[in-house]
Amino acid sequence: QCRVFCPTGAISIKTQMDEVWDAIADPNTRVVAQVAPAVRVAVGDAFGLTRGHSVMGKLVAVLHRMGFDEVYDTAFAADLTIMEESKEFLDRVEKGENLPLFTSCCPAWVKYLSDQYPEFKDNLSTCRSPQGMFSAVMKEYYRDPEKNQGKKTFVVSIMPCTAKKMEILRPNNFTKGEQDTDVVITTTELIRMIRNSGIEFSTLVTEACDMPFGFGSGAGVIFGVTGGVTEAMLRRFADRHDKATMDSVAEAGARGEDGIKEFTVTYKGTPLHVCVVSGLANAHTVMENIRSGKKQYHIVEVMACRRGCIMGGGQPPRAGSRTKTARMEGLYQADNVTSIRKADENPLIVSLYDGLLKGKVHELLHVDEY
Ligand code: SF4
């Protein structure tokens, strides 16, 4: 069994790169990739390109050349997460139940809370992570015999994260008894696969994602950095989408490198107390404050890695402070150049709710228990 190592040296982690090559070689298998937001700002410098710049278009191109049939952006599913999580949050605020709402898109945080603070499990959002939502929707799409044309669908998730390898094995990431995501490949593993393929990455002409799920809003893209989930949700709550509105949301308090950020926003006359946390030591501090009653919040976003997924355990290690800053700026820059910056304005999301998701929202997008 081939293994790669956790950058901290604490654990060894299974790699399944050979399974991906085998699936690509099988003519009866449709191999679909989803690429998480943080991956695009960590690959370029491995191939001599500018540190931190998004290379999403080149990633789509290289994955197509490696033999993937379809390539998608996990930011699309992050938009779905925002739709569901913001609705769940407003329901809880209205009922005064299970507050604060804890975000659920980081599996290391979900495990930490479940193990260390089980009395707060009902406060976790029931939303699957963007990875989980994407794969459940993709597999459901190809359950239709007219669409699958007799081929099996194999979903490969390209993530900045080693914990995502565990997330896909949890029972709540199975639909209709089937594992939704087949394999997780980390950013470092992807870099190795690109090198092994012999494709000249730096000179590739950029390509766009495939359809029918090929577009994520800027709100989905910033999920890769601490505060991104919160900012995406605040955009969802905003009535307008003009630059001044987006700038004022950006300045609300979710951005920045601090491990614990606290601020208050007002939504329809109600003050909402927000906490954005990155790093499990900081999460511990925040949880002790909540448990003792010293602090009260309406929503708490937690990412187990400091600065969020841009510094995940599956990203190229030994990233210095300039790299950390460049990755963060790279994601905000990628957001700045999208024409749709609110999840609820992504037309692909709107049509998904009118079509495939009808009667299946809970089954495909939520978990029943942790
Ligand atoms: Fe994975 Fe770290 Fe992102 Fe959590 S913050 S999802 S552990 S990369």
Radius of gyration: 19 Å
Strand order of the largest sheet: 4-3-6-9
Mean pLDDT: 95
Taking the sheet with the most strands, its summary is: 4 strands, parallel
**Secondary-structure content class:** alpha/beta
Provide the succession of SSEs. EEHEHEHEHHHEHEEEHHHHEEHEHHH
Share of helix, binned: 25-40%
Describe the global form. Answer: globular
From the N-terminal CA to the C-terminal CA, the straight-line distance is 30 Å
Q: Bin the strand percentage.
A: 15-25%
Protein name: 2Fe-2S iron-sulfur cluster binding domain-containing protein
Cofactor: [4Fe-4S] cluster
Keywords: 4Fe-4S, Iron, Iron-sulfur, Metal-binding
Organism: Blautia hansenii
Please describe what this structure looks like.
The protein is of the alpha/beta class. It has one domain: Rossmann fold (3-Layer(aba) Sandwich), CATH 3.40.50. The protein contains 15 helices and 12 strands. It has helices at residues 17-25, 56-66, 74-95, 107-116, 130-141, 145-148, 163-167, 187-197, 218-221, 228-237, 243-250, 280-291, 321-336, 347-354, 361-365; strands at residues 3-5, 12-14, 29-35, 70-73, 101-102, 152-159, 174-175, 178-179, 183-186, 260-267, 270-278, 299-303. The strands form 4 sheets. The chain has a 4-stranded parallel sheet with strand order 4-3-6-9, sandwiched between helices. A 4-stranded mixed sheet has the order 5-12-11-10, sandwiched between helices. Strands 1-2 form a two-stranded antiparallel ribbon. A hairpin with a 2-residue loop joins β7 (174-175) and β8 (178-179). Bound molecules: iron/sulfur cluster. The site of iron/sulfur cluster has 12 residues, from α7.
